[in-house]
Structure formats: C-alpha cells, structure tokens
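New to this. Please check this record:
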Amino acid sequence: MFSTSRPLVFSVFIIAITLLSSCTSSKQLTYFQDLPDKNVIDLPPMQPEERVIENGDDLYINFSAKDNEAANYFNKSSTTAVVPAVPGTVSAPATTTGSSYIVANDGFIEIPRLGNIKVVGLTAGQLRAKLLTSVAPYLKDPMVEVRFNTFKISVIGEVRSPGRYVLDMQRTTIFEALAAAGDLPLTAKRYNVELYRDYNGQRKIYKIDLTKASVLNNQEIFQLRHNDVLYVQPLQNTIARENFNTVTATLSIILSVVTLGYAIFK
C-alpha cells in the first residue's frame, strides 16, 4: 500500500512546489510604483505633436466659401469620413461628409482644378495654408478643412484583446491603447513593454517599464503616433506554467497507458 501511494504523494509535492514558485508578486503587477505618496501629484504638461503626412495616409479635405457652388468645383464627389466622437473609442459612431484623398507613393494627391499637390512632410495646418493660397485666385473668402481620417495603432502579445484599433486622432496615450485592448492580464510583463514605431522615415523600438512613474513624463512614449505597435511579453512564470501543464498532460497519458498495460499483462 505504501509503495503504491508514494509516487502519488511525490507528484502532488512537485505540483505544489511548481505552483508556489510561479506565483506573481504585486510588484510585477502595479503601475507607477515609485509615485510619491500624495493625494495630488503635479505632472508636466504635454503638447500633442502635430502629425506629419506620410505616404498612404487618408486625408479629409473640404473647400468652402461664400459661394459654395464655386467651392464645390474643388471638391471631389462627397464621401463618408469616419470621425471618432470620444477620445479612446474603438468605433466611431459620428460621421461627416467630405472628400477623401489617399496619399500616393510619390507623396502627391490630385485635387480637382488644382492638379497634383505634394503633401508628404507637411502637417495638416501647413497643407491647409498651402491650399488656401492655391484657391485664393478663384474663390472669395475661401476656407479649407484638412484632417486625418484615421489614427490606427496595434496592440499584440499578452493582452486581453489583441488587435488593431482606431483611436482618437488628436491625442492617444499608451494607456488609452492598452485600455482599448482590455488592459494587461496578471500574466503580462508590465516592466518590459516594447513600442515599435515607424514614423516620418525613422524606425525605432522603445523599451517601456510601466511600473515606473517616469513613463508619465516622457512624451515620446506616453503619446502614441499613427501605426505604432505595442508588444506585451508574457511573464516567465506564465511560460513555465504552460510548459508544466504540457508536461503534466503528457506524463498523465503515459502513466495511464503504463497502468493499463500493467493491469492487462500482470
């Protein structure tokens, strides 16, 4: 009887030790651990950086004037442009009508009556000023509206809802992106999140420790840019648990086969 139960007791002991060693401490889960112990903490203001137009961007451009009929000669056929109503929303219930332009690989868009206009490298404000100058000889008191139709980021790895998200086009933070993806589960590595950025001809990878308050003061990583990708790694004990579960399942099958064989051939 003792010889039969000894392997079972040993197996239970090994499983218990493994589970205890894989427990996650609170220090691995808490954001901003080094914040001062105050009710109100002042943070430096952050000015959203104006986005620069790149190849492939989807632009909304609309011309208007006192004589709207004349202004419409410079507008394409009306299309529906999606506009987020609330910062951080994944879907965009509000819509408006206007002209949508996809920036070509050569950096130009084609506007009726004005022809090809180079837009790459300009901000929306700079393009607005450029277009106002171009239509001024033809329209009285012209107005031009320019904005980006989309602002997309991707969140992958150890998050509850990985995917590609459309967020607020004016200002989106790293925590709004994580919130859109359902936040980080207990199995996520908060102290080594990677931000992949391909923007304005430069490619960079940032290593971010979300357990440190310094992330709140670093505008370069706190505020996201169009097409940013956040990658969240799993904790090592998560990987260990998965491997342990696989090994345990395999050993269970082997033990069952051995036990069955012993019962048949003894």
